[in-house]
Amino acid sequence: MRLSILDQAPISSNQTPRDALLESLQLAQAGERLGYTRFWIAEHHNLAGLACSSPEVMLAYIGANTKTIRIGSGAVLLPYYRPYKVAETYNMLATLFPDRIDIGIGRAPGGSAEATNALSDQFLQQVWDLPKSLMELLHFIYNDFPSDHEYAKVQAAPLPDIAPEPWLLGTSKKSALLAAKTGLSYAFGQFMSDNDGKDIIKQYLDHFKPKRIENQPNVILTVSVICAETNEKAEEIALSSLLWSIQKEKGEGTKGVPSIQEAIEYPYSEEEQQKIEKIKQKMIIGNPLEVKQKLIDIQASYQANEIMLVTITHSPKDRLTSYQLIAEAFM
Question: From which residue to which does the signal peptide run (predicted)?
């Protein structure tokens, strides 16, 4: 099974943003040592507790300090940007780090309404126009505009020997069908979706139309996972992430991921306890053997080619241990 890492660069309550970003690098380096296929880092804006607003900056830093693991965005929030500039940026990365760059494309705002307005005057219109922007981006990446197109003589230089691999990310049937129509690989964010992922991925596979000879349907399923030596330890570690989800929903959690002790001592209401149980239903929490079996089952159930793991803990050591235990379970 191919396993990969999605990093949201979470800031723990005892960390600075710089601490969190340095931990992201260490996680990418550990992922490379452990045999993970790719490392993606997410883009967020004005969200307390998440450190990465510019994946392209972090990817340059991570690429320079790793050697083999594929690295990419999870995702570039395309409605904020002109496709030409995105293509230039990721072509630059692909030139520096040959055959290692992924460019994941998303349409979500990735932050507060105020941040969205600060970034773009026409975000909703650009979301509506995403299919057009996506096609423009692909033409720039592959340098294949029709000869009569207004950008036919415009290159997103430098042109790498191997183009960055484009992916479309989403949680809906709409994103799946767009990925299928454009012949792109598709990453479904199961960890952040209440939709029926199995049906959405089936829609992608059923409607996939290759646009290039090398195109084949390809699915990443992204799941939230916390693994520890025992089930009890994993459940305890998961409390930090679960409490943080509750706090963020209430407009709290501005100090970052709380400690396990804070999570244990927190006075949960009955409604909050019910919300936590609902969140846990979308997570995989347990010891290495149980986590391995659940990942095998979910891969088969969703028809995914690859599983991408997102793990948020208060302690960076617990996060690294989780990824290590899972990698070792699959060796």
Answer: none
- No. of helices (H) and no. of strands (E), the chain: 13, 9
pTM: 0.97
Contacts 24+ apart (CB under 8 A), 13-22: 13/255, 13/256, 13/257, 13/258, 13/259, 13/262, 13/314, 14/256, 14/259, 14/314, 15/256, 17/51, 20/51, 21/51, 21/52, 21/58
Mean pLDDT of the chain: 96
Percent of the chain with pLDDT over 70: 100
Distance CA 57, CA 247 (A): 29
Q: Residue 296: which domain range? A: 2-228+283-329
In-domain check, residue 243? no
User: How many Å apart are CA 300 and CA 46, to the nearest integer?
Assistant: 37
The pLDDT value recorded for residue 212 is 80
Q: 15 Cβ partners below 8 Å, 6+ apart?
A: 23, 256
Q: Is the confidence at residue 214, as pLDDT, over 80?
A: no
The answer to whether the Cα torsion of 121, 123, 128, 134 is positive or negative is: positive
In a domain, 169, yes or no: yes
H or E element in which residue 70 lies: strand 70-77
Kind plus residue range of the DSSP H or E element containing 179: helix 173-182
Amino acid at 285: I
Nearest C-alpha neighbor of 189 from the set 309, 45, 322, 62 = 309
